[in-house]
Structure formats: C-alpha cells, structure tokens
Amino acid sequence: MSNQSNYKLKLGIFVTTAIVLFILALYYIGSKKNIFHTTINVSATFNNVNGLLSGNNVRFNGINVGTVSEVYAIADTIIKVDFTIDEDVTQYISMDAIISIGTDGLLGNKLVNIEPGKGKGGTVQEGSVFITLHSLQMDNALRTLSKTSSNLEFITSDLKNITHKINNSNSLWSLFSDTVMAENVKSSIVNIKMASNSSAVLTGNLKNVSENIMKGKGSIGALLTDTTLSGKINQVIVKLEKVSDTMAIIFGDFSKISGRLEKGQGSVGVLLKDTTFVHNLNTSMNNINKGSITLNEDLEALKHSFLLKRYFKKQEKRNQKNK
Amino acid sequence: MTKTFEPLKSFFSEVGGISIFAGRFFREGFLPPYEFNELLRQSFEIGYRTLTLVGVTGFIMGLVITIQSHPSMEAFGTESWLPSVVSVSLVREIVPVITALICAGKIGSGIGAELGSMNVTEQIDAMEVSGTNPFKYLIVTRVIATTLMLPILVILADTISLYGAFIGVNMKQVISFNLYTNQIFEKLSFSDVLPSIIKSFFFGFGIAVIGCYKGYYTRNGTEGVGRAANSSVVVSTFVVFIIDLLAAQIADILHFT
Q: What is the pLDDT of residue A137?
C-alpha cells in the first residue's frame, strides 16, 4: 500500500511539474505577444505592406506594444492593417504618430513601427486610423547601394592613382625632405601671420572710417548723410540743367550765325566775304594812318602857334597844381 | 507471382491488423469498467521511469545543437540569434521526435516484450478465464498511459534541453539567463509549442498501439517475444516519422508555421 502511494506521489509530482512548466511557457509566450494585456484595436492604411502578416509585432519607439491582427485589401491600391496596441501605452501615442512598416533587423520579420508625432490630434482611441509612411523597399535600397558602391569604386580607383603618383614623385619627396624649404615655409608663415595682423589693424581702421562716415563725420560723411546738402545739390543740378539747356540754345544760335557768316549772308557776312571791300578798307586804313600822323604834326605846330600857346601853358600849370 | 506480392500482402495485413486493433481500443477504451489503478501504475512506469533517459537525452541535444549551430551562425554574423534559432528548432521538432524515438525504443519494446511473454505463457488467456477483460486491463491502460505521458515527457525534455542550450550558448559567449529566456520566448509562439505537444499525443498513441499489437499477437514462443519486441521498435520508429511528416503537413495547411 505504501509502495503504491509512493509511486502515485512521484507520478503526481512528475505530471504537475510538466503541466506547470507548460502553463508558464504559454503564459510567457502570451505575454510577449501581449495576449494577457488589455488592448485596443486600431488600424492604418498602406499602399504596400511588403509581406506583413497577422501576428507580426507592433513597436512603439522600439518596444513591442502589440500585434498585427489582420491585413486585407480595401481597394486596388489600399491595404488596411488592423492591429492591437497595449492600453497602457495609448496615453503616449498621439493621433499624428507616424506609422510605417519596417523590418526586425536587416532580414528579420516585418513589423509595424509607430513613431511619436508632435502630440497634436489627441491620444489614440479604439478604432483610430493612422497616417502612414511609405515603407523602405529593399530593392530600392539595394539599387541606391549599388550606385553608391559603383561611385565608391571610381573614387578609390582615382585615389589609388593619386597615391601611386605621390609615391613615385621624387620631387615631392625631396620637397618634403628639404630643410631649407621648411625654414622658408616657416618664415613665410610668420610673414603671413604678420601681414594678417596688419590687415587686421587695417580692417579695424577701415571699420572706424566707415563708422565715422556712417555717423556723418567728416566731409564724405556729411556728403553722404546730410539730407539738406543733398537737397541743395539737387537744386544746383536742376539749375545747371537749365543753364546747360540755355547754353545749348545760345550755341545753336551762334552756330546759325557762324553758318550765315560763312555763307556771306547779312551785312557782316558780306563785309567778311567781299575781298574788294577788304582791300579798300585796308587802303583806307593806311590813308587814315598817314592822315593821323600828318594831323599829329599839324597839331604840334598849332601848340607852338601864338593863338593857342597861352591855353596850353595854363593847362600845364593846372596839372602841376593838382599833383 | 504469389511470392512477389507476399511482402506487400504482409504489409497490408499488418496495417489492417493495427487499424482493427486501434479501432478495438476506441470501442473498449471508453466503456466501463475503468482500470484507474493500472492506468496510474502504467503512467508511472512509462512516464516517470523514462524521465531520466529522456531528460539526459534532451540536455545533450540542447547542448549539441547549440554547439553545432554556433559556427554557422557566427559565419553569418548572427550569433545573437543563436538562442532564438536553437529554441525554435528544439521545441518544434528535435525534442518531440527524439523523445518519441527514445520512447519507441524503451516503451515500445518493453510493452511488446511484456505482452508477448504474457501471451506465450498464456497469462492473457488465464485473465480471460478469470473474468478480467485482458484488452481493457493490458492494452487500454498502456495505450492511454503512453498517449498521456509522452506530451508530459516532451514538455519536461523541452525545458531540460533549453537549459542545455543555455549552457551551450554560454560556452561560446556570455549571456545572462534572463536575456536568454527573453530571447527564446520572444521568438517562440503558440504555433511552435502547440503543434509539437499535439503531435506528441499521436506519437505516444502510435508507439503504444504498435507495441501492444505486436505483443498481444505474439506467436512462436520465446523466439516470438524477441521478434515482437524488435518489430515493435522498428515499426513504431517508422510510425513516429510518418506521424511527424503528417503533422508538419497539417500544421502547414493550418498556417501553424
């Protein structure tokens, strides 16, 4: 009897242990799939779900918060994905959260990613429908990667040529090993440093000058900043414009006159153009010149005549008194 | 011509005999009187006494599969997936099948030899004469006990093999037990655990029915007992693989993959 109860005890422990382990395993698996949590049902629409299946995980900032419950087509280009979210995290997920389809690792299972939005639109509720993003398509990514690697190949090839040329360049290596050159470079750098210091001072001065100009100090400043002066200058310029217009008219008239003189029109033109008249005038002038010399001699003779001699003496005396 | 078809005829006769035997089990198994004490005793003999063998085998399988998988996983740079991959393969396939094969060897041969020797020594006839239904007492209890105990052995072997795998993973890298359990339960799903447990019921049933059939119909004295034990192991091993194939197909059809 004792032996019989002993094996029953052992059998009981054996069976109970197995059942407990089985229940624990089911519980752990269920808890990982959020089966024993209170969840809410939400959905999102996509153009392409890239092989997403019911049972795939839903992640919010990298944490598993639910599972995909159903994937089905509602139009020719729209696929609706229903999924559950653990009720505890709904307070952190706003309606402007961005939903996308991602991959667990590089080649892992597909999953639904929830990225937090800006907190607008209120928190998610039962039956909410999210905005979605186009998922990363592996073939597109690989195509880009192929292009990048091709470019990289060219770059490395060029780099190889450059390094080869550098390695084979004796002049470059001798340049590097030349100590005199190094000293020269060093002194050049010192000079450049000094020059840069001087230029810094110069720019400082220039800055002051420009500041003074801006403040209206000095002639240039006044010129640039005095608004009344600019008004006056404007008036002067207007007057100058008028004067220049008048001058233009005058010069136009002069041009007409000179044109007429050239053509011999008018009295003066006739006088200037008539050569006979000029000759006669020349002769007359000679005669007048000769006549005036003769007249001078006659007047000098009159001064010494007895009739006018007394008058000239009186005039001489008056002049002497005035002095 | 007759000799050419003899093995085929023998095969179909065997299949037919086993089917009728299984049918008789369902016909008599659910009708009173019930032999509870014998059922418990058989459960103890079949389940508890096989635990050590199954446990050690499961531990070794977990350890070995992990060590063998490590180089391949390392080559792909997916060492961190080792717990997940090993746990899924152990729970889904390796542990149920290995446990069933061990049970086919130990329990199948044990039942075949025990019932065969009882048959050749006319103990079964004696039971019938004494008014006890030998089919109920000997066959139904063993079939039910094996059918119930094999899933329990599989659950325990799963646990032990996963612990073996933990040690195997820690031989190549350092991983905490907490992280290990998190990783395995992250990847395991009901579709991994439930089909493996359900198919182990069928493994147990198949092993027990074949062992009992071979033992119950043993002929030709002690020589027949040895042959019954041997053929029960061979046939039940083959049946385990057939059931496994069917289970995989059905699980695939029902999307349990």
A: 59
Angle at B192 between CA B188 and CA B194, to 5 degrees: 120
Instruction: Assess B186–A contact: CB distance below 8 Å, yes or no.
Output: yes
Ordered alpha helix ranges (H), chain B: 6-29, 36-43, 49-75, 82-89, 95-103, 109-120, 123-129, 134, 141-172, 177-187, 190-216, 221-253
Count of CB contacts below 8 A, A vs B? Answer: 57
Percent above pLDDT 70 for chain B: 98
The pLDDT value recorded for residue B164 is: 93
The total of other beta-carbon atoms located within 10 Å of residue B111's CB is 33
Global confidence as pTM: 0.60
Q: Which residues of A touch B (CB under 8 A)?
A: 4, 7-8, 10-11, 14-15, 17-19, 21-22, 25-26, 28-33, 55
In chain B, what are the domain boundaries? 35-253
Question: What H or E segment, with its residue span, contains residue A45?
Answer: strand A39-46
User: Is residue B48 within 8 Å of residue B150, measured between CB atoms?
Assistant: no
Verify whether the Cβ–Cβ distance A32 to B186 is below 8 Å: yes
Question: Percent of chain A, pLDDT > 70?
Answer: 89
Which chain A residue is nearest to residue B152, measuring alpha carbons? A18
CB-CB under 8 Å, A14 with B51: yes
Question: Model ipTM?
Answer: 0.78
Distance CA B59, CA B61 (A): 5
Residue A53's nearest CA partner among A28, A70, A29 is A70
Helices (H) and strands (E) in chain A, counts: 9, 7
**What are the extents of the domains in chain A?**
1-32, 39-136
Residue-wise pLDDT for A175-202, tens only, equals: 777 778 778 878 888 888 888 888 888 8
CA dist B239 and B235 (Å) reads 6
How far does A23 lie from chain B, in Å, by closest CA? Answer: 10
